[in-house]
UniProtKB/TrEMBL annotation:
<keyword id="KW-0344">Guanine-nucleotide releasing factor</keyword>
<dbReference type="InterPro" id="IPR008937">
    <property type="entry name" value="Ras-like_GEF"/>
</dbReference>
<dbReference type="InterPro" id="IPR000651">
    <property type="entry name" value="Ras-like_Gua-exchang_fac_N"/>
</dbReference>
<dbReference type="Pfam" id="PF00618">
    <property type="entry name" value="RasGEF_N"/>
</dbReference>
<protein>
    <submittedName>
        <fullName>Ral guanine nucleotide dissociation stimulator-like 1 isoform X2</fullName>
    </submittedName>
</protein>
<feature type="domain" description="Ras-associating">
    <location>
        <begin position="575"/>
        <end position="663"/>
    </location>
</feature>
<dbReference type="Pfam" id="PF00788">
    <property type="entry name" value="RA"/>
</dbReference>
<feature type="domain" description="N-terminal Ras-GEF">
    <location>
        <begin position="60"/>
        <end position="186"/>
    </location>
</feature>
<dbReference type="InterPro" id="IPR000159">
    <property type="entry name" value="RA_dom"/>
</dbReference>
<feature type="compositionally biased region" description="Basic residues">
    <location>
        <begin position="669"/>
        <end position="683"/>
    </location>
</feature>
<dbReference type="InterPro" id="IPR029071">
    <property type="entry name" value="Ubiquitin-like_domsf"/>
</dbReference>
<feature type="region of interest" description="Disordered">
    <location>
        <begin position="490"/>
        <end position="512"/>
    </location>
</feature>
<feature type="domain" description="Ras-GEF">
    <location>
        <begin position="225"/>
        <end position="494"/>
    </location>
</feature>
<dbReference type="InterPro" id="IPR019804">
    <property type="entry name" value="Ras_G-nucl-exch_fac_CS"/>
</dbReference>
<dbReference type="InterPro" id="IPR036964">
    <property type="entry name" value="RASGEF_cat_dom_sf"/>
</dbReference>
<dbReference type="InterPro" id="IPR023578">
    <property type="entry name" value="Ras_GEF_dom_sf"/>
</dbReference>
<dbReference type="InterPro" id="IPR001895">
    <property type="entry name" value="RASGEF_cat_dom"/>
</dbReference>
Length: 683
């Protein structure tokens, strides 16, 4: 007997074989399921049969592994003609990576028309059930993903669906549903146009909020309660996270860019990214606009942000918590030795504990475990090494229990972007036969399902937005990397800081004496234009990584694919690595855009170069380029005919650069000339 992937999920099953047919590949499983005879089914009260445990049978379950769009649509119904809810959910959540809504709709309609065109002799209850199931799929699609149809002003898909309902499914309710959705979209369009007009009018009247240029404005931070700031940040973060469209997080969608280098396909993700950067940059700004203050007074601003971060931890807002930690770990702030030294011991311990949450060790294991533990919990489980902090945390916990406090959860979205980008980089979109790799989509759906679950948790918050607070927040002037560095050096000159930092490193706890830019948190991801700036939160392990360049004249931040130390990366196995590769353009950029590719243990240099050229969409022959691994003390040239897997240095980050052979040869000649001239001058 054959069944589907959604039946009897709790019963034991084992993989049997792979089955191929034209346009599809299936994984076949054997499942042991309980069998009840018709006699026993009629007598529901019979529970005493001593042989009931022997009544079972084996079903074959087929799960589509890869297929054409037509076969994937065909699999929306199972072998009994019923809607396969598991496959429907995965398909509707991920299909945008391999098809457009219009293509899917046309394929769905063709399938329906094909089944409906059967002759009376051929029609069976099975066919009728399939027709009913396909109509149910359309309803699910309209209810779950209405944004797929919100493409005005023509609304082509909705009008096509309306025509389908009129011609092939009259009385099904689809036509009425389409009209309701269309009316809602048109109302939204009118409201959006009115808001845009109002905003334009306010700008023309000069009602925009002035940018703060007074350095004393940073003192206003100390006048606002930490809890107030934490609650307002949480209110904004929760609202943005609830508006995130989960399938926009897919690695092939959210980092996609147009020819001008701007992200266009995931506005809900970009809004969350922008808010993250807004918080981090304002943390930096409020600490640097204090030139007239002593280090002990500036430490109060630093302590304020650490306390706000702790309040965010209590509110389970991991997004702004990460943003604040990122700001405090930025080079411009981290180098202020005197300011950090003036912090109390408890504040330093608290900062270290909060920073440890987002440690990149073992693919951000700490933050993942914490999120899994507290995602749907009523309140956070706080702990500390400090006795005084531990005592305060216990008091807060008792208060939450006594008052019945229930907190929502806002995750750090970068964690999910990490996973989805890695899946997108490591798994091919199609098989060697050209079929859509649906196993990849199953893996992506597992991450998307977590986002949807957390969105339910984020809706629990009951915090009202304070417009006055946001006027103050938006009025704070932020600085580019260069400006921040200059301000920081004006507060504590480099010579003074560098001369004494080693002697005082013990007073800074675990704060490293050497600033590692790879641990900083702002970055722009997915950009193929090195001059574009689209900042987003950090650490896409082995796939997206933060990097701040203080020699840049802009506050650019960069990279599309990570900066995690290779000694801790989970993306290595005995037969493959995920490596990060940038392409040198010949420009004097200080930023680098990294993309991830899968390196197999059989890949030679020319094969890897071909993968890189394909990833960047660059035309050219492999022999026109050379591949170099970036090492702490220079570059390692990978020989033309080498097996890259064994030729690379795996004791450091697996970061490579693809350079034209002409540029490499010219650089080599310059180095030789420099060495010769150096010898002459020494003589």
């Amino acid at each position: 007997m054959e069944t589907t992937s959604t039946e009897q999920q709790d019963d034991a099953s084992r993989f049997w074989r792979e089955e191929k047919e034209t346009g599809a590949v299936y994984n076949a499983f054997l499942k042991k399921v309980t069998y009840l005879s018709q006699t026993r089914l009629e007598d529901e009260n019979e529970k005493n049969s001593e042989f009931s445990h022997l009544m079972w049978e084996t079903h074959k379950v087929r799960v589509i592994k890869a297929g054409t769009l037509e076969k994937l649509v065909e699999s929306l119904t199972n072998t009994r003609g019923e809607m396969d809810s598991s496959h429907v959910n995965i398909f509707l959540a991920t299909y945008r990576t391999f098809a457009t809504p219009q293509q899917v709709l046309e394929t769905l309609i063709e399938r329906y028309v094909q089944l409906r065109s059967q002759t009376k002799e051929e029609k069976t209850e099975f066919h009728e059930q399939q027709l009913r199931s396909l109509k149910s799929v359309i309803f699910v699609w309209l209810d779950s993903y209405p944004e797929d149809f919100h493409v005005g002003p023509e609304y082509t898909c909705l009008h096509r669906l309306e025509q389908f309902a009129h011609d092939y499914a009259p009385g099904s309710g689809i036509g009425r549903k389409v009209k309701e959705v269309l009316a809602g979209f048109r109302q939204q369009d009118v409201e959006l146009a009115a808001k845009q007009l109002e905003y334009s009018f306010s700008l023309s009247e000069g009602n925009g909020h002035p940018v703060d240029t007074d350095s004393s404005k940073s003192l206003a931070l100390l006048e606002i309660s930490c809890r107030k700031i934490a609650e307002q940040l949480t209110c904004r973060d929760a609202g943005l996270f609830l508006r995130v469209i989960p399938h926009h997080c897919l690695g092939a969608v959210w980092s996609r860019r147009d020819k001008q280098g701007t992200a266009t396909d995931a506005p809900s993700i970009q809004a969350t990214i922008q808010q993250f950067n807004n918080v981090s940059l304002r943390v930096i700004a409020t600490l640097l606009k204090t030139r007239e203050l002593k280090s002990s007074q500036r430490a109060k601003v630093l302590q304020k942000w650490i306390t706000i971060a702790q309040d965010l931890r209590e509110l389970k807002n991991f997004s702004s918590l990460k943003a604040i930690i990122t700001g405090l770990q930025s080079h411009a702030v981290y180098r202020l030795r005197k300011t950090w030294s003036a912090l109390s011991k408890d504040s330093m311990v608290l900062f270290e504990e909060l920073s440890e949450i987002f440690s990149v060790e073992n693919n951000q294991l700490n933050s993942r475990e914490l999120l899994m533990k507290e995602a749907t919990a009523k309140f956070p489980d706080l702990d500390s090494q400090s006795k005084s902090l531990k005592r305060k945390n216990l008091q807060k916990r008792r208060s939450w229990i006594d008052n019945g406090i229930v907190q929502g959860t806002v995750p750090y979205l970068g964690t999910f972007l990490t996973d989805l980008t890695m899946i997108d980089s490591a798994c091919p979109d199609t098989t060697e036969e050209g079929l859509i790799n649906f196993e990849k989509r199953r893996k992506e759906f597992e991450v998307i399902a977590q986002i949807k679950l957390l969105q339910v948790a984020a809706s629990i918050y009951n915090i009202s937005e304070d417009e006055r607070f946001w006027r103050w927040f938006n009025s704070i002037r932020t600085y580019s990397d260069t400006e921040s560095h200059e301000l920081s050096c004006s507060l504590e000159p480099p010579s003074e800081s560098s001369a004494k930092i080693k002697k005082k490193s013990a007073s800074l706890g675990n704060k490293p004496s050497k600033i590692d830019n790879s641990k900083l948190g702002l970055f722009s991801c997915g950009s193929e234009d090195r001059n574009s700036i689209a900042s987003i939160p950090d650490t896409i392990a082995a796939s997206i990584g933060p990097l701040l360049s203080h020699s840049s004249s802009t506050s650019s931040v960069i990279s599309s694919d990570s900066d995690t130390p290779s000694t801790h990366t989970p993306f290595k196995s005995s037969d493959s690595y995920v490596i990060k590769v940038s392409m040198e353009t010949g420009q004097n950029d200080t930023t680098h855009v990294y993309k991830s590719i899968m390196l197999m243990n059989s890949d030679h240099t020319q094969v890897v170069i071909e993968k890189i050229l394909e990833k960047y969409g660059v035309d050219g022959r492999p022999d026109q380029f050379c591949l170099l691994q970036l090492l702490p003390d220079g570059e390692l040239l990978i020989p033309e005919r080498a097996n890259v897997f064994y030729a690379l240095n795996n004791s450091v980050d697996l970061k490579f650069i693809l350079r034209s052979r002409r540029d490499y040869d010219q650089g080599k000649d310059k180095r030789k000339t420099g060495r010769r001239s150096g010898k002459k001058s020494s003589v």
